[in-house]
């Protein structure tokens, strides 16, 4: 099994991967963003083992990405609702889908469109400069340590 901790990595990406970098985690987040909230819904959609799904849901709740909400008392059953922290993963999920659409979708094309509710336009994730608000090409991006 892969380690969950990226020791010696003083990097926000490494810290984020500790939380959502496991194979099933972002697929569960994607499902909740698409409206699948119940355990059985995830089980049927993902084809994941029950114990793995339970573990991933518990971790996402523990980190504050999802919230468990009881919807039935006998037997006790829960739905998993997205929190603001989880909703803030939308750009990451959409960016990964865009990348997959571009490089991995094959001849049939992308299996799903991401639409703006209301006008039904396609939603994209683009880079922009916070200071000048100008669009930024991938080649214009660099990272440096904060001093």
Order of helices and strands: HHHHEEHH
Largest sheet: 2 strands, antiparallel
Helix/strand structural class: mainly alpha
The number of domains is 1
Shape: globular
Secondary-structure topology with pairs:
Blueprint: H1 12-20, H2 25-33, H3 39-46, H4 50-62, E1 66-72, E2 77-82, H5 84-87, H6 90-104
Antiparallel strand pairs: 1-2
Describe the structure.
The mean pLDDT is 92. The longest helix has 15 residues, at 90-104. This protein is 39% helix and 9% strand. By secondary structure, the protein is mostly helical. It is globular, with a radius of gyration of 18 Å. A two-stranded antiparallel ribbon has the order 1-2. The protein has a single domain, classed as Arc Repressor Mutant, subunit A, CATH 1.10.10. InterPro entries: HTH_HxlR, WH-like_DNA-bd_sf, WH_DNA-bd_sf. Residues 11-108 form the HTH hxlR-type domain. Pfam families: HxlR. Keywords: DNA-binding, Transcription, Transcription regulation. This is Helix-turn-helix transcriptional regulator.
Describe this structure in a few short sentences.
The chain has a two-stranded antiparallel ribbon.
